[in-house]
Design a protein that fits this description.
By secondary structure, the chain is mainly alpha-helical. The protein contains 14 helices and five strands. The structure holds tryptophan. The site of tryptophan has 13 residues, from strand 1 and helix 7.
Length: about 350
């Protein structure tokens, strides 16, 4: 297999408010990876419209996610931050991938089944083809590493299958064009940290989600300190004190979730947190967790608020990022057209 330059790519959908799950599951890792890799972070507005989005809300949410990236420490000058729809090559490669991916592969996607629900006939074609666009997002940069949450693992596997089938279907023209035995890399998921799955504060078996009706179930990145403290105070737990080992957390999903959140925020392991809090009641642990949340989130929240009002700055970041992204994407598309046999200028 040919060697590919290491490159990180990831995407976040601009739908609704960002919450702690988005922050710990994705953005924290985005920030960390900047010191070891070239990174491209994309606000995937084209994925968002696979289900209905109010246009004004979509614009607002796109700027908000961008502000959250920057407020959290993503450096849009050293790396690339942009919104998907400004680089048309994503859609262009997605079409080619629509013709590479098989119906049988997409039929297995659990996220589609969940999102489409019972009324599948009424789901958009875009929702069904969503994973092909995601593969195009990654592969139009020939990215090798993709920081994502647990729930995106299956989509990453599909991206690998698409890359492999493309490399195989077109192996003769790929070799003839000097790309050896593979034009696309096999992108690998990076699922890191003690809080890859932040769960609902009301039910430790359900993911923290913006679509859950109860706002008590999540910490929003825009929550003020009092709200955070109250939500943690009311978070569901069991009556036992914290154990001294991780194994004992397994049958206690709510306790496990809160310990995981603490560990991720403190940048340590669950084992370390348990060492500190073994034997403590939740009446001790919860206020400590709330304090840590406020300490870590409030500077980000404040910076987000400041940036949100500066739409000229945010839109400038996205314009600059999309220009730089497009240079790479256009280069890939030229080669893809040659490999597939499209006549081009
Ligand atoms: N599907 C991802 C999510 O819902 C978002 C996404 C779109 C993405 N394109 C991507 C993530 C490419 C990683 C790489 O979380």
């Amino acid at each position: 297999m040919a060697a590919f330059k290491q490159l990180v790519f990831s995407g976040v959908q601009p739908t609704g408010n960002l919450h702690l799950g988005n922050y710990l599951g994705a953005i924290v890792n985005f920030v960390k990876l900047q010191s070891t890799h070239d990174c491209i972070y994309c606000v995937v507005d084209m994925h968002a419209i696979t289900v209905w989005q109010d246009p004004a809300e979509l614009t607002k949410a796109t700027r908000e996610v961008t502000a959250a990236f920057i407020a959290s420490g993503v450096d849009p000058k050293a790396h690339i931050v942009f919104n998907q729809s400004q680089v048309a090559e994503h859609a262009e490669l997605a079409w080619v991938f629509n013709c590479v991916a098989r119906l049988g592969w997409l039929n297995r996607m659990t996220q589609f089944k969940e999102k489409a629900g019972k009324d599948r006939e009424n789901a958009s074609v875009g929702l069904y083809a969503y994973p092909n666009l995601m593969a195009a997002d990654i592969l139009v940069y020939r990215a090798t590493h993709v920081p994502v949450g647990e729930d995106q693992k299956q989509h990453l596997e599909l991206s690998r299958d698409i890359a492999q089938k493309f490399n195989n279907d077109y192996k003769d023209t790929i070799a003839a064009r000097g790309f050896g035995d593979a034009f696309f890399p096999q992108p690998e998921p990076l699922i890191q940290g003690p809080a890859t799955r932040v769960m609902s504060l009301r039910d430790g078996t359900k993911k923290m989600s913006k679509s859950e009706p109860s706002d008590q179930s999540r910490i929003n990145l825009t929550d003020d300190p009092d709200t955070i403290a109250l939500k943690i105070k009311r978070a569901k737990t069991d009556p036992d004190p914290l154990p001294d080992n991780e194994k004992a957390l397994e049958p206690r999903p709510e306790a496990d979730n809160l310990v995981g959140i603490y560990a991720a925020l403190a940048d340590t392991s669950k084992a370390d947190v348990l060492q500190k809090f073994a034997g403590a009641q939740f009446s001790i642990f919860k206020p400590a967790l709330a304090d840590l949340l406020v300490e870590k989130l409030s500077p980000i929240t404040a910076e987000m608020r400041r940036l949100k009002d500066d739409t000229a700055y945010i839109d400038g970041v996205l314009a600059d990022g999309s220009r730089r992204a497009q240079v790479i994407a256009a280069e890939t598309m030229k080669s893809v057209k040659d490999i597939v046999g499209f006549v081009r200028r």
